[in-house]
Amino acid sequence: MKILGFSAKKSDRLAIANYYAYRYNGFDMKFHSHPNAEIMYNDGGACEIYWKTGGGSKRHSLKKGQFAVLPSQLTHMLYVPQGGRCDILNLELTISSEAGLPCAELEAAGLSFLSGGIVFAEDTASVGSTIKKLHEELGSAQFNAGSGLQTAALLAQLMVMIARVSHRNESESSYIINKAMKYIENEYPNGISSRDVAESMKLHPVYLERQFKKHTGKSMLAHINYLRVERAKQLILNTALPLIDIGAECGFNTRQNFYETFKKHEGCSPSDYRRKKKERTDSSYRQTPYETEQENQPE
Protein backbone atom coordinates (compact mmCIF):
# COMPACT_ATOMS: atom_id res chain seq x y z
CA MET A 1 0.00 0.00 0.00
CA LYS A 2 1.05 3.61 -0.54
CA ILE A 3 1.21 5.83 2.56
CA LEU A 4 2.58 9.36 2.04
CA GLY A 5 4.90 8.13 -0.68
CA PHE A 6 6.09 5.10 1.31
CA SER A 7 5.59 1.54 0.10
CA ALA A 8 4.23 0.14 3.34
CA LYS A 9 3.23 -3.34 4.45
CA LYS A 10 0.04 -3.94 6.41
CA SER A 11 2.16 -4.73 9.47
CA ASP A 12 4.02 -1.37 9.25
CA ARG A 13 3.25 1.71 11.32
CA LEU A 14 3.32 5.42 10.58
CA ALA A 15 5.45 7.20 13.18
CA ILE A 16 6.97 10.62 13.90
CA ALA A 17 10.67 10.63 13.03
CA ASN A 18 11.48 14.27 13.83
CA TYR A 19 9.89 17.62 14.61
CA TYR A 20 10.94 21.25 14.78
CA ALA A 21 9.70 24.82 14.97
CA TYR A 22 11.79 27.34 13.08
CA ARG A 23 11.63 30.96 11.94
CA TYR A 24 13.04 31.40 8.43
CA ASN A 25 14.25 34.91 7.58
CA GLY A 26 14.98 35.64 3.92
CA PHE A 27 15.68 31.99 3.23
CA ASP A 28 16.48 30.32 -0.10
CA MET A 29 16.75 26.55 0.32
CA LYS A 30 18.28 24.32 -2.36
CA PHE A 31 16.20 21.59 -3.97
CA HIS A 32 16.51 18.42 -1.92
CA SER A 33 14.69 15.22 -1.04
CA HIS A 34 14.69 12.91 1.97
CA PRO A 35 13.13 9.60 2.98
CA ASN A 36 10.74 11.16 5.50
CA ALA A 37 7.35 12.64 4.62
CA GLU A 38 6.60 16.11 6.01
CA ILE A 39 3.72 18.09 7.41
CA MET A 40 4.58 21.81 7.32
CA TYR A 41 2.33 24.33 9.08
CA ASN A 42 2.76 28.08 8.52
CA ASP A 43 2.34 29.70 11.93
CA GLY A 44 3.22 33.22 10.73
CA GLY A 45 4.54 35.12 7.73
CA ALA A 46 4.65 33.68 4.21
CA CYS A 47 6.77 31.35 2.12
CA GLU A 48 6.76 29.52 -1.18
CA ILE A 49 7.21 25.80 -1.72
CA TYR A 50 8.69 24.60 -5.00
CA TRP A 51 8.74 20.97 -6.07
CA LYS A 52 10.07 19.07 -9.08
CA THR A 53 7.75 17.47 -11.61
CA GLY A 54 8.43 15.41 -14.70
CA GLY A 55 8.37 18.52 -16.86
CA GLY A 56 10.07 21.07 -14.61
CA SER A 57 8.92 22.50 -11.29
CA LYS A 58 5.79 23.91 -9.66
CA ARG A 59 5.24 26.53 -6.95
CA HIS A 60 2.69 27.11 -4.20
CA SER A 61 2.45 30.08 -1.83
CA LEU A 62 1.92 28.99 1.77
CA LYS A 63 0.30 31.69 3.90
CA LYS A 64 -0.30 31.93 7.63
CA GLY A 65 -2.80 29.32 8.79
CA GLN A 66 -2.15 27.02 5.83
CA PHE A 67 -0.33 23.71 5.78
CA ALA A 68 1.33 21.35 3.32
CA VAL A 69 1.76 17.58 3.30
CA LEU A 70 4.81 16.51 1.28
CA PRO A 71 5.27 12.80 0.49
CA SER A 72 8.49 10.86 0.98
CA GLN A 73 11.31 11.42 -1.55
CA LEU A 74 9.66 14.51 -3.08
CA THR A 75 12.31 16.87 -4.48
CA HIS A 76 11.37 20.27 -3.07
CA MET A 77 12.60 23.54 -1.60
CA LEU A 78 11.39 26.34 0.67
CA TYR A 79 11.76 30.00 -0.28
CA VAL A 80 11.24 33.10 1.86
CA PRO A 81 11.89 36.44 0.09
CA GLN A 82 14.62 38.73 1.43
CA GLY A 83 13.16 40.90 4.19
CA GLY A 84 10.39 38.39 4.80
CA ARG A 85 9.92 35.72 7.43
CA CYS A 86 8.02 32.51 7.92
CA ASP A 87 7.40 30.52 11.12
CA ILE A 88 7.20 26.82 10.29
CA LEU A 89 5.99 24.01 12.54
CA ASN A 90 7.23 20.75 11.08
CA LEU A 91 6.56 17.07 11.61
CA GLU A 92 8.60 14.44 9.77
CA LEU A 93 6.92 11.05 9.39
CA THR A 94 8.43 7.66 8.66
CA ILE A 95 7.47 4.00 8.48
CA SER A 96 8.28 1.93 11.56
CA SER A 97 7.84 -1.71 12.45
CA GLU A 98 7.44 -0.94 16.15
CA ALA A 99 5.73 2.30 17.26
CA GLY A 100 3.12 4.50 15.61
CA LEU A 101 -0.24 4.17 13.85
CA PRO A 102 -0.96 0.84 12.10
CA CYS A 103 -0.88 1.43 8.33
CA ALA A 104 -3.59 -1.20 7.81
CA GLU A 105 -5.95 0.81 10.03
CA LEU A 106 -5.10 4.06 8.23
CA GLU A 107 -5.91 2.42 4.90
CA ALA A 108 -9.14 0.94 6.26
CA ALA A 109 -10.18 4.38 7.55
CA GLY A 110 -10.23 5.64 3.96
CA LEU A 111 -7.92 8.61 4.52
CA SER A 112 -7.52 9.22 0.79
CA PHE A 113 -4.92 12.00 1.10
CA LEU A 114 -2.41 9.46 2.44
CA SER A 115 -2.19 7.62 -0.88
CA GLY A 116 -2.20 10.76 -3.01
CA GLY A 117 0.42 13.35 -3.78
CA ILE A 118 1.02 16.79 -2.30
CA VAL A 119 -1.68 18.40 -0.15
CA PHE A 120 -2.04 22.17 0.35
CA ALA A 121 -4.94 23.34 2.48
CA GLU A 122 -6.35 26.02 4.77
CA ASP A 123 -6.48 25.03 8.42
CA THR A 124 -10.17 24.93 9.28
CA ALA A 125 -10.01 22.03 11.75
CA SER A 126 -7.36 22.88 14.39
CA VAL A 127 -4.52 21.24 12.45
CA GLY A 128 -2.09 23.87 13.75
CA SER A 129 -3.06 23.51 17.40
CA THR A 130 -2.80 19.72 17.17
CA ILE A 131 0.70 19.97 15.71
CA LYS A 132 1.62 22.31 18.59
CA LYS A 133 0.28 19.77 21.10
CA LEU A 134 2.39 17.09 19.43
CA HIS A 135 5.46 19.34 19.69
CA GLU A 136 4.76 19.87 23.39
CA GLU A 137 4.24 16.16 24.00
CA LEU A 138 7.37 15.17 22.10
CA GLY A 139 9.44 17.80 23.89
CA SER A 140 8.15 16.99 27.35
CA ALA A 141 10.80 16.05 29.92
CA GLN A 142 8.33 13.51 31.31
CA PHE A 143 8.13 11.63 28.03
CA ASN A 144 7.28 7.99 28.88
CA ALA A 145 5.18 5.06 27.70
CA GLY A 146 2.01 6.92 28.61
CA SER A 147 3.16 9.90 26.62
CA GLY A 148 3.69 7.54 23.69
CA LEU A 149 0.01 6.64 23.77
CA GLN A 150 -0.91 10.33 23.90
CA THR A 151 1.39 11.03 20.95
CA ALA A 152 -0.22 8.23 18.93
CA ALA A 153 -3.69 9.56 19.79
CA LEU A 154 -2.75 13.09 18.71
CA LEU A 155 -1.17 11.81 15.49
CA ALA A 156 -4.33 9.82 14.69
CA GLN A 157 -6.41 12.93 15.40
CA LEU A 158 -4.15 14.96 13.10
CA MET A 159 -4.52 12.45 10.25
CA VAL A 160 -8.32 12.58 10.49
CA MET A 161 -8.29 16.40 10.59
CA ILE A 162 -6.10 16.64 7.50
CA ALA A 163 -8.33 14.16 5.67
CA ARG A 164 -11.45 16.20 6.48
CA VAL A 165 -9.87 19.50 5.48
CA SER A 166 -8.53 17.98 2.24
CA HIS A 167 -11.97 16.57 1.37
CA ARG A 168 -13.61 19.92 2.14
CA ASN A 169 -11.10 21.73 -0.06
CA GLU A 170 -11.79 19.29 -2.91
CA SER A 171 -15.54 19.91 -2.56
CA GLU A 172 -15.00 23.68 -2.53
CA SER A 173 -12.75 23.41 -5.60
CA SER A 174 -15.39 21.39 -7.45
CA TYR A 175 -17.99 24.04 -6.62
CA ILE A 176 -15.67 26.79 -7.88
CA ILE A 177 -14.95 24.97 -11.14
CA ASN A 178 -18.62 24.19 -11.79
CA LYS A 179 -19.50 27.84 -11.21
CA ALA A 180 -16.73 28.98 -13.56
CA MET A 181 -17.86 26.52 -16.25
CA LYS A 182 -21.44 27.74 -16.02
CA TYR A 183 -20.35 31.38 -16.34
CA ILE A 184 -18.17 30.56 -19.36
CA GLU A 185 -20.96 28.62 -21.10
CA ASN A 186 -23.36 31.54 -20.66
CA GLU A 187 -20.96 34.37 -21.46
CA TYR A 188 -18.40 33.11 -24.02
CA PRO A 189 -20.26 34.80 -26.95
CA ASN A 190 -19.75 38.16 -25.20
CA GLY A 191 -15.98 38.29 -25.70
CA ILE A 192 -15.06 37.35 -22.13
CA SER A 193 -11.53 36.61 -20.95
CA SER A 194 -10.29 34.39 -18.12
CA ARG A 195 -9.88 37.55 -16.01
CA ASP A 196 -13.58 38.33 -16.50
CA VAL A 197 -14.45 34.87 -15.17
CA ALA A 198 -12.32 35.43 -12.06
CA GLU A 199 -13.76 38.91 -11.45
CA SER A 200 -17.31 37.58 -11.71
CA MET A 201 -16.49 35.12 -8.92
CA LYS A 202 -14.42 37.60 -6.87
CA LEU A 203 -11.37 35.32 -7.04
CA HIS A 204 -7.75 36.05 -7.90
CA PRO A 205 -7.17 35.20 -11.61
CA VAL A 206 -4.01 33.16 -10.89
CA TYR A 207 -5.76 31.10 -8.20
CA LEU A 208 -8.79 30.36 -10.38
CA GLU A 209 -6.63 29.53 -13.39
CA ARG A 210 -4.59 27.08 -11.30
CA GLN A 211 -7.72 25.39 -9.93
CA PHE A 212 -9.36 25.23 -13.36
CA LYS A 213 -6.33 23.61 -15.00
CA LYS A 214 -5.90 21.19 -12.11
CA HIS A 215 -9.48 19.92 -12.50
CA THR A 216 -9.95 20.10 -16.29
CA GLY A 217 -6.43 19.69 -17.65
CA LYS A 218 -6.68 22.88 -19.72
CA SER A 219 -6.71 26.63 -19.26
CA MET A 220 -9.88 28.71 -19.08
CA LEU A 221 -9.01 30.40 -22.38
CA ALA A 222 -8.60 27.01 -24.06
CA HIS A 223 -12.08 26.01 -22.87
CA ILE A 224 -13.58 29.35 -23.93
CA ASN A 225 -12.06 29.02 -27.40
CA TYR A 226 -13.24 25.42 -27.70
CA LEU A 227 -16.85 26.52 -27.08
CA ARG A 228 -16.48 29.39 -29.54
CA VAL A 229 -15.13 27.18 -32.31
CA GLU A 230 -17.86 24.55 -31.77
CA ARG A 231 -20.52 27.26 -32.01
CA ALA A 232 -18.86 28.72 -35.10
CA LYS A 233 -18.93 25.30 -36.79
CA GLN A 234 -22.67 25.04 -36.16
CA LEU A 235 -23.31 28.47 -37.65
CA ILE A 236 -21.07 27.81 -40.66
CA LEU A 237 -22.94 24.58 -41.45
CA ASN A 238 -26.49 25.70 -40.73
CA THR A 239 -26.63 29.37 -41.72
CA ALA A 240 -25.60 31.62 -44.57
CA LEU A 241 -24.20 34.27 -42.22
CA PRO A 242 -20.99 35.97 -43.38
CA LEU A 243 -17.94 34.58 -41.61
CA ILE A 244 -17.10 37.94 -40.04
CA ASP A 245 -20.55 37.99 -38.41
CA ILE A 246 -20.15 34.41 -37.20
CA GLY A 247 -16.84 35.28 -35.56
CA ALA A 248 -18.38 38.25 -33.76
CA GLU A 249 -21.40 36.23 -32.65
CA CYS A 250 -19.15 33.58 -31.13
CA GLY A 251 -17.16 36.08 -29.07
CA PHE A 252 -14.01 36.51 -31.18
CA ASN A 253 -12.90 40.13 -30.87
CA THR A 254 -11.11 40.30 -34.26
CA ARG A 255 -11.32 38.55 -37.60
CA GLN A 256 -7.70 37.46 -37.25
CA ASN A 257 -8.34 35.95 -33.83
CA PHE A 258 -11.28 34.00 -35.26
CA TYR A 259 -9.22 32.74 -38.21
CA GLU A 260 -6.18 31.72 -36.15
CA THR A 261 -8.15 30.04 -33.36
CA PHE A 262 -10.42 28.17 -35.77
CA LYS A 263 -7.49 26.93 -37.84
CA LYS A 264 -5.66 25.79 -34.70
CA HIS A 265 -8.66 23.68 -33.68
CA GLU A 266 -9.86 22.38 -37.05
CA GLY A 267 -6.73 22.45 -39.20
CA CYS A 268 -8.31 24.74 -41.79
CA SER A 269 -9.71 28.26 -42.06
CA PRO A 270 -13.42 28.98 -41.51
CA SER A 271 -13.89 29.61 -45.26
CA ASP A 272 -12.20 26.31 -46.18
CA TYR A 273 -14.34 24.51 -43.59
CA ARG A 274 -17.51 25.91 -45.16
CA ARG A 275 -16.33 25.07 -48.69
CA LYS A 276 -15.39 21.48 -47.81
CA LYS A 277 -18.68 20.86 -46.07
CA LYS A 278 -20.57 22.33 -49.02
CA GLU A 279 -18.69 20.14 -51.50
CA ARG A 280 -19.41 17.06 -49.41
CA THR A 281 -23.10 17.97 -49.17
CA ASP A 282 -23.36 18.66 -52.91
CA SER A 283 -21.77 15.34 -53.83
CA SER A 284 -24.20 13.45 -51.60
CA TYR A 285 -27.11 14.93 -53.58
CA ARG A 286 -25.75 14.03 -57.01
CA GLN A 287 -27.12 10.53 -56.62
CA THR A 288 -30.12 9.46 -54.62
CA PRO A 289 -30.01 6.11 -52.85
CA TYR A 290 -32.56 4.81 -55.42
CA GLU A 291 -30.39 5.87 -58.35
CA THR A 292 -27.33 4.24 -56.82
CA GLU A 293 -29.26 1.01 -56.29
CA GLN A 294 -30.49 1.00 -59.88
CA GLU A 295 -26.98 1.51 -61.20
CA ASN A 296 -25.72 -1.46 -59.23
CA GLN A 297 -28.41 -3.83 -60.59
CA PRO A 298 -27.07 -6.46 -63.04
CA GLU A 299 -28.30 -6.16 -66.63
UniProtKB/TrEMBL annotation:
It holds the Pfam family HTH_18. Residues 266-299 are annotated as: Disordered. It comes from Candidatus Borkfalkia excrementigallinarum. The keyword Amino-acid biosynthesis does not apply. One of its GO terms (molecular function) is DNA-binding transcription factor activity. This is AraC family transcriptional regulator. It comes from the Bacteria. Keywords: DNA-binding, Transcription, Transcription regulation. Residues 178-276 form the HTH araC/xylS-type domain. PANTHER family: ARAC-FAMILY TRANSCRIPTIONAL REGULATOR, HTH-TYPE TRANSCRIPTIONAL ACTIVATOR RHAS.
